[in-house]
């Protein structure tokens, strides 16, 4: 049904913007490279006959009219920002699968009942600005526009400033929009589909997430003449926290993750006892009580460690998403489309957050996963098979068509 | 004997160059601020009637002639580079105590038998370029000039390039110089003198040091969909190493230190499992076998940790100084000077490396410690009492005078 070759070509063209020597992409949210990628998306959608609008947090909506303009749109989308050492498919696949749906409908001369919209959501990754899924969060009224525009990156630049700098602070209202249905295609970003030899993951729901910034403070002093027992070494404390995050996640299986992604010791000199460590904590679980239990266990270790080593700490929440189960109708639509196309498929739970999780607040939502090589994502070597991507796109087309007449 | 007020004024003037808002100094080796400090030292020494020469690694020698030009010089000195978040006294006290000795001898119209030299040694701290005590190491032929000029900082700038950039690659030969005696005054950088209520530390020797760079490599992947048991998390491995360095040092008491001063996780994104960690290890001990035993114990933990977490590692030595005992005559000279001046004093072992350690290879050497507030050094809040500094300088003057007629 869809043109897999054309989808692949567009993915490869988009991946040039921010291409890294290791074959990945570095295109952080709201940088000039992000602007170039946005401009390319806008051009492609206009060429496909869509009307493009941009809202106040930079989300881009490409609308293909339906027969009945009063129906809420059937939407799809994802993101085109990447991790600092990201790949070509995370997010971009979902957006360009949406563009391929538009192009295929044009090829086939199909007009849908409800209008369709393909959306680029701002800053899904959350690596430059926390939290992640920022644009869809504002759209779903989980975050206010005001607080979001004030969030700052590590250099102190705010979301509002960055949006203005790239010309993507648009006039469209950020909230109050009706959603007929929302589907999002995405690479799995984990090893399960590949391991099970399935082409399509029918996504039942997603792990809840709680993120924190943690700062530990001790006293910086000379690494030679300062006796071991008199030290207040912030890094020795941080090491105990890293070990605890890992251990606690192992103790809370199944469907539990705990990760320290960022950690930096200050002042960062070979012969200076670190007086400060800044780190991030990322906890995920499918059950809300178990998610909280992980965090309480780690908080206990932080308190005990600080008491033992004479440190102080600050623990600041930076993101909080409850576990989510997708709409049964959408889950059925994805399963039915995969079955109808004769594609091998299985039910799966998403370990990652996705914009679909926020869209599920506004209307029925579902997701389609396809395998990625070795389950590796958030890595420059991220890879996916053209045939799997085309299959995921075909499932997306079927599911959207079904929803647009329902 | 010496002018403590003048010594303090010079210390405060030098501390302006690279002064930080927290009251410390950031004047990394071979930066333009280091050049400014060097220029000031040269001006002060020329004003005190000395001839100033610079060698190929940027060491600066200010020579005050003696009656007998054929005698090898009695030397003193230290360094004026600082830690990134360093203080006003570490190194600078030793250099300016030397300048104050010159000025006092001029005031008193004293001519010594042997010539005197006050030296600024290049890059003692080792924070921008490893290893530490670089200039004195080349002078003592522990390092070759060629290998030293090729060492690079984190930005890839070599020592040779940095020396040329600030105009301190001098014509004087870097080695082959006779040393009549060498004394160095320094703040203790630890809490012992303050704790014992003594003004002067008679330094018997110094801990041996072995430094390493350690890189751990795993696989970066998504913090959500990557199951805990399939991760190759370099930071979880690094945390075990940090804990081991600390534990092993505690197990090797007394006179044992183990410190991880630098640690950075890559790529450094909240929701990415770190695929690489780069860190530094600093081990110190007074007994060579116990120093090696610490390192072997930590190496065992590194190997076991990497095996457990599917990581690879690279452990590269960056500095290696054996424990050292100073010349008995010089130790006696310092003890005698302190006693003669009626100053409270005690024997002490240096936990830090000092240029005197390399000078001890070329001739009799000794050191004089004075207390620093709270034992804190390598910290912007480093502080010392003017009276203690003047006392240390007076001991230096006596010890040098005794050596110059001996
Ligand atoms: N899909 C994805 O990479 N989302 C980023 C947010 C997360 O870390 O789950
Ligand atoms: N004295 C001093 O800070 N030396 C730097 C080398 C060391 O770390 O011991």
TrEMBL record, chains A, B:
Boundaries of every Peptidase M20 dimerisation domain copy: 208-308
Keywords associated with the record: Hydrolase
Matching InterPro entries: Amidase_Cbmase, Bact_exopeptidase_dim_dom, Peptidase_M20, Peptidase_M20_dimer
One GO molecular-function entry: hydrolase activity
CDD domains the UniProt entry points to: M20_bAS (cd03884)
Keyword GTP-binding annotated: no
Similarity remark: Belongs to the peptidase M20 family.
This protein's name: Zn-dependent hydrolase
Organism of origin: Ectopseudomonas alcaliphila
Lineage: Bacteria, Pseudomonadati, Pseudomonadota, Gammaproteobacteria, Pseudomonadales
């Amino acid at each position: 049904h869809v043109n897999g070759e054309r989808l692949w070509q567009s993915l490869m063209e988009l991946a040039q913007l921010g291409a890294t020597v290791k074959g990945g992409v570095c295109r952080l949210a709201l940088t000039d490279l992000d602007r170039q990628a946005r401009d390319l998306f806008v051009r492609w959608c206009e060429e496909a006959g869509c009307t493009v609008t941009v809202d106040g947090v930079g989300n881009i909506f490409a609308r293909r009219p339906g027969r009945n303009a009063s129906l809420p749109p059937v939407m799809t989308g994802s993101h085109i920002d990447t991790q600092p050492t990201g790949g070509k498919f995370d997010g971009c696949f979902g957006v360009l699968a949406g563009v391929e749906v538009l192009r295929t409908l044009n090829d086939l001369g199909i007009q849908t009942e409800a209008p369709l919209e393909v959306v680029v959501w701002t800053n899904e990754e959350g690596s430059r600005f926390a939290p992640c899924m920022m644009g869809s969060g504002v759209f779903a009224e989980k975050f206010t526009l005001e607080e979001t525009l004030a969030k700052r990156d590590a250099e102190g630049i705010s979301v509002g400033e960055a949006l203005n700098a790239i010309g993507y602070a648009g006039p469209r209202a950020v909230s109050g929009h009706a959603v007929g249905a929302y589907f999002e295609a995405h690479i799995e970003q984990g090893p399960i589909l590949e391991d099970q030899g399935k082409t399509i993951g029918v996504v039942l729901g997603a792990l809840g997430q709680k993120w924190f910034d943690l700062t530990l403070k001790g006293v910086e002093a000379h690494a030679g003449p300062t006796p071991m027992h008199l030290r207040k070494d912030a890094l020795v404390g941080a090491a105990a926290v890293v070990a605890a995050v890992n251990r606690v996640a192992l103790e809370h299986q199944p469907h539990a993750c705990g990760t320290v992604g960022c950690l930096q010791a200050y002042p960062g000199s070979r012969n200076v006892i670190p007086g400060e460590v800044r780190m991030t904590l990322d906890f995920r679980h499918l059950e809300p009580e178990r998610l909280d239990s992980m965090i309480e266990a780690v908080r206990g270790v932080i308190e005990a460690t600080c008491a033992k080593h004479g440190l102080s700490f600050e623990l600041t929440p930076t993101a909080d998403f409850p576990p989510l189960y997708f709409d049964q109708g959408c889950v059925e639509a994805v399963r039915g489309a995969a079955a109808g196309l004769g594609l091998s498929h299985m039910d799966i739970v998403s370990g990652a957050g996705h914009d679909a999780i926020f869209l599920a607040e506004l209307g029925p939502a579902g997701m389609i996963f396809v395998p990625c090589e070795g389950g590796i994502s958030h890595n420059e070597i991220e890879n996916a098979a053209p045939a799997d991507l085309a299959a995921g796109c075909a499932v997306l087309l079927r599911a959207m068509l079904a929803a647009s007449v329902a």
